[in-house]
Amino acid sequence: MEDLPSNPNSNNDEIHLNLPKVRFMDAMDIVQWEGFWFEPGLLQPAMTFRSSFQAEDDDVILTSNMKTGTTWLKSLCLCILKNPKPDEDYDLLVKDNPHFHVPTIESTIYRTKPLIDLYKAPSPRLFHSHLPYIVLPDSVKNTDCKIVYIARNPKDTLISMWHYFNSILHSDQNPFPLDKTVDCFLSGVHQYGPFFDHVLQYWLESQKSPQKILFLKYEELKSDPKREVKKLAEFLGKPFASEEEIDKVLWRCSLERLKNLEVNKNGSILYNVHNSLFFRKGVVGDWKNYLTPKMEEKVNQTNRIKLEEHGLFL
Ligand code: PAP
Asked: How does the average pLDDT of the chain come out, rounded?
């Protein structure tokens, strides 16, 4: 175990004192650092991660913006890398929520005091981060460790985010207005935003170094799960031996199964966040039930301007 590094900036309150700050969806304050917005409590952990994390060549770092399929990706990689052939009693996904097994670095590992000893984790180490590419540690960028990014179309992402933050508001608070959420999302002022810059950084890096960064899309995982999961396993250096193995992993990680596991129906992990909140509908195009044509067009327009010229269609 190691303690937080002692330096004059290690007081989180002091760190974000001079940074731009706004209230996001009536749920939390967010501050701007390195061009992105974060809950203030994440800044010190993100900075410590960036300055002190030593990547190993066989590490696997999963990355994503919020609500783009992180839980699914964590489950799949956990099965492929750590628990390929569980017997009845040893399915890690039955024992605990995927976020427990594959911690999000900035919101767990570097947030607990004393710090969890990352160097005791069995190889290959499997972590996750919602941080943008720009603030990843140099050692992650410069070693042979692998990065998997999962992206999702912005309309479903923002609806999923809207549901999630509304569900953690105090019970006496009204749901945050959707039109304001759309505006926050499009202006990039939201937790881990701007969404489009986040996606674009990983997309461009994955184009430059496809052997290092695998860029997955939630919609493709839904439409052709076998092909995408096969691609994922090959990228991780653990190709499946048979079609049956692929089917088994897909079943183990399916939303229906995970949602109905006891640990996810009744358990909770981080900071009193109930595990059930990570599993909602998982439907592509759910935004159609919420966005007006005007909102839809606004999102489409930003999507086109920000991503399409780089050959990315979400
Ligand atoms: P996080 O950022 O809080 O970790 P994340 O897992 O990225 O959340 O996204 C949650 C979304 O993934 C939810 O989408 P929805 O709100 O549109 O329904 C959730 O339902 C969906 N999801 C969670 N687990 C799975 C899964 N196993 N398969 C498909 N979708 C899933």
From this structure: 91
Cα 205 to averaged position of ligand 1 atoms, centre (Å): 24
Question: Which range among 43-52, 84-93, 176-185, 240-249 shows the weakest confidence by mean pLDDT?
Answer: 84-93
pLDDT in the model for residue 11 = 58
pLDDT of 7 strictly over 60: no
Q: Please report, for the domain that includes residue 222, its CATH number.
A: 3.40.50.300
Judged by phi (left if over 0) then psi (alpha if -120 to 50, else beta), residue 270 lies in beta
Q: How far is the CA of 111 from the centre of ligand 1 (A)?
A: 23
For residue 306, tell me if it sits in a domain.
yes
Instruction: Name the residue with tokens 């799960």.
Output: 225
CA 185 and chain centroid, separation: 16
Q: Return the pLDDT at 32.
A: 96
Give the number of domains in the chain. Answer: 1
267 falls within a domain: yes
255 C-alpha to ligand 1 centroid (Å): 8
Ligand 1 pocket mutation pick from 67, 167, 264, 269 by most atoms within 8 angstroms of CB: 67
Indicate which residue's Cα is closest to atom 23 of ligand 1: 279
C-alpha 283 – ligand 1 centre gap (Å):
9
pTM exceeding the 0.85 threshold for the entire prediction: yes
Q: Domain of 19?
A: 13-310
- Cβ of 151 closer than 6 Å to ligand 1, yes or no, is no
> Which band of pLDDT confidence, cut at 50, 70 and 90, is reported for residue 271?
low
Supply the pLDDT for residue 171. Answer: 75
Strands (E), the chain: 21-24, 28-33, 36-38, 60-64, 126-129, 146-151, 213-217
The answer to whether residue 5 sits within a structural domain is no
281 Cβ inside 6 Å of ligand 1? yes
Residue 182, Cα to own-chain centre: how many angstroms?
A: 20
Residues with catalytic function? 130
CA distance 48 to 106: 9
Pocket lining: 68 vs ligand 1, CB cutoff 6 Å: yes
